[in-house]
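STRUCTURE:
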């Protein structure tokens, strides 16, 4: 296991109401959106308009036409005071 993986595994992936307003960052350090709501531990994201179809597919968003999209827990690498970092890249 790499040091980066160990660091991610040591961080929390629990999403709380405090996540509203946090940036959502992909594995390539690109902002993909902002958390607009949290329901039952699931963050809902207003995505960046330039979000690629490849990442939308990885996140299960390819068939949706919505203003907000949920992030499944298994897609989250870490949750910090400032951001939610995903395991996937664009």
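SEQUENCE:
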């Amino acid at each position: 296991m790499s040091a980066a993986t160990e660091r991610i595994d040591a961080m929390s992936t629990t999403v709380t109401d405090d996540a509203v307003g946090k940036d959502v960052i992909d594995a390539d350090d690109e902002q993909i959106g902002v958390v607009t709501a949290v329901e039952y531990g699931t963050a809902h994201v207003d995505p960046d308009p330039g979000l690629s179809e490849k990442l939308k597919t990885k996140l299960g968003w390819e068939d949706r036409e919505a203003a907000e999209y949920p992030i499944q827990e298994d897609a989250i690498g870490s949750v910090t005071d400032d951001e939610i970092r995903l395991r996937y890249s664009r």
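REMARK: The domain at 3-86 is CATH 2.30.30.240 (SH3 type barrels.).
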